Amino acid sequence: MILRMLVEDGLSCLGEYGTIASAWRMGGELLEETRWQHGMGEFRAVQDLVRGGRYQEAIERALAAIHGGGLGRRYAARLHGLLCWLHVSALEAPSPAAVLHGEEALRLADLINDEWIRSEALIRLIPAYCQIGDLDRAEQACERLGHEVERNEMVISAGWSGFWSIRAEVALAAGDPEQAIRFLARAEESADPNTPAAADRIRRQRAAVEAWGQLGPGELTESIQQVLRVELHGESDRALLIRSSAAEALLMAKSDGVTAAARAREALNRAIALGRADLARQVRWRLAHLL
Q1: Cα separations (Å) of 97 from 84, 104, 127, 195, 244?
Q2: Which residue, among 219, 217, 223, has the nearest Cα to 260 in the 3D structure?
Q3: How many whole angstroms separate alpha carbon 287 and alpha carbon 249?
Q4: Residues of the chain with pLDDT under 50
Q5: Which candidate, 180, 177, 179, 142, places its Cα nearest to that of 163?
Q6: pLDDT of residue 194
């Protein structure tokens, strides 16, 4: 029905444009505009669910939108990328689905040859590869992302500084905190001096990695990776920031009890302010020894 209406709208322009080809082109442009608007609306709706911490609903809404079609490749790619991120950072469970969605986002980005969507897809996909232990493909994705940043530093948040932070995450997944610290040093060197918050974030990353190195491989690895991931991507979702503070508190407990207690209180206060009783209970249970 929608397609018929769009074609009819295009054909209605026949008198104005004079040829069937021109009218058909007009109909195609109208169809593309409709896809764009529909795709953008669905993407924003899923983002709103994510910001509210309603992750399962966000996944269901994104999947329904993708299966329903009519999104256009740009927003189909962005929804697949968001699904990849949800599996990795929100559900926190290794899943082949995360990789499948991330790779589909990248495939669609390549089809439309959009450097911004391609870079976004790679940023989502790299942690997914790390999560399932496929470090070779994580490194390959890092190389592709590096080429994108070389062409245009603005394609990812924080430019080269953000890129080196991503490399640090991969090094950490490989169990090499010393390499991760070297990458973070490069991230700090590349940080915008006019953005003090960026430098503070990197310093927190380095402190977390150094603490992880002291604990040794296998201890709280998931916690430190979660801290890095949330800090790196600057996730605005408040529920995830609560989990990040809780993870950092666990990580710092052995090396810096004062900081750990401060992070624990921060996590609990954020959960209460957000009205998330489930997260508040989780924080109290996991961090009872620090509160």
Answers
A1: 7, 10, 13, 36, 23
A2: 223
A3: 8
A4: 1-18, 23-24, 26-31, 217, 231-236
A5: 142
A6: 76
What is the C-alpha separation between 252 and 173, in angstroms, rounded? Answer: 19
Dist. CA 235–CA 239, nearest whole Å: 10
- For 148-191, the pLDDT digits (tens) are 999 998 888 778 888 998 998 898 888 788 898 899 889 888 88
Between CA 106 and CA 115 the distance in angstroms is 10
Q: Which residue has the tokens 């493909």?
A: 137
Cα 19 from chain centre = 46
Say how many C-beta atoms besides its own lie within 10 A of residue 136's C-beta.
9
Burial class (CB in 10 A: 0-12, 13-18, 19+), 40: middle
Predicted TM-score (pTM) of the model is: 0.68
Decide if 119 contacts 148 (C-beta within 8 A).
yes
The length of the chain is 291
Can you tell me the distance from the alpha carbon of 29 to that of 32, in angstroms, rounded to the nearest whole number? Answer: 5
